[in-house]
Amino acid sequence: MTRAAYASHPERSRGRRHPEPPAPTRSDFQRDRDRIVHSTAFRRLVYKTQVFLNHEGDLFRTRLTHSLEVAQLGRSIARSLQLDEDLVEAVALAHDLGHTPFGHAGQDVLDECMKPHGGFEHNLQSLRVVDLLEQRYPAFDGLNLTFETREGILKHCARRNALQIEAAEPGGIAARFLHGGQPSLEAQLCNLADEVAYNAHDIDDGVRSGLLELEQLEAAVPLVRRHLREALAEYPGLTGKRLLAETIRRMLSAQVYDIIDATRLGLAESAPADADADAVRAAPALLRFSAEMRAASTELKRFLFANLYRHPQVAETRQRAEAVLRDLFALYMADPTLLPAEYLALAPEPPRACADYIAGMTDRYAVKEHQRLTGKTLF
């Protein structure tokens, strides 16, 4: 693998919290990726929702397929920019490990329930999963990932949480949230690849579900309109699934090439010497869209928010999902003995143990557990 000077280099990693001898055949970032793939939390992503609940159809995205799509896009861009592909893949595959069941509805209701107890952030929960909750190794809790992978996982962090992490890990992964600065280019890339992936697959799932019409997207979203018309110009008479797929394929390619070109321009202007000399972290975000593509992506997100995420059918399902998690949290708080003993042992207090347990649930397990404890059938 050829890496640019500004890329992250595994041999210059800031290391693991618990020192380990190097693997004989794998870099530290490859080792991180492999540990993530073999984790329990990663397997659970197959039954965690993106937009449509797992029981609503086998063709819709889950957190697992989303993470794989982010990893694919990330590796493609990383190769062109000569970044470390293994680090990009590790961050991409781990970035949603702490996400709740029922997508953003689950995150919102769990944050609401945890407001008196420090709140809930799924990025912070993903870090908690890899640092503590995975129980696979005799010498330490968690997966003992490198600083660089952990830094990429912690995409957002409230100041109160950053202060707590900084107190336990001075100058570590939370320092940038307190003092400014950026993460590695590989982490920045995963943030953009995440955005590109979910915009594209939410269009695909929205049209396939019947909640969106391709004609509706064409009329309202210039990014879709341009690539749909290009597809029809090259393939007159193209309709249905093939037209949808070809439109999305062209959109994805255009965004990928835009990121590569805009980032190369930014790198040329900033000329960071390497990833370790603070040149990358001290600069503005260097992985970027062009201004035109950023505006187009923002416009697409606004459309999806208004017409898909707030669609009455999605909202009705969301209400039931929220009721499931709200009831579960209340039941576990009323009687913490309902929680598995290992969660109580790993949490500083029962509310955090409740959040850890609920966040780790799949959609179908949460529904099953809610039915068992309440006798209600909401799905």
TrEMBL record:
Keywords: Hydrolase. The keyword Lyase does not apply. SMART domains: HDc. InterPro entries: dGTPase, dGTPase-like, dNTPase_2, HD/PDEase_dom, HD_domain, PHydrolase_assoc_dom. Transmembrane segments: none annotated. Pfam families: HD (PF01966), HD_assoc (PF13286). Residues 1-32 are annotated as: Disordered. Residues 63-199 form the HD domain. Belongs to the dGTPase family. Type 2 subfamily. HAMAP family: dGTPase_type2. This is Deoxyguanosinetriphosphate triphosphohydrolase-like protein. The lineage of its organism: Bacteria, Pseudomonadati, Pseudomonadota, Betaproteobacteria, Burkholderiales.
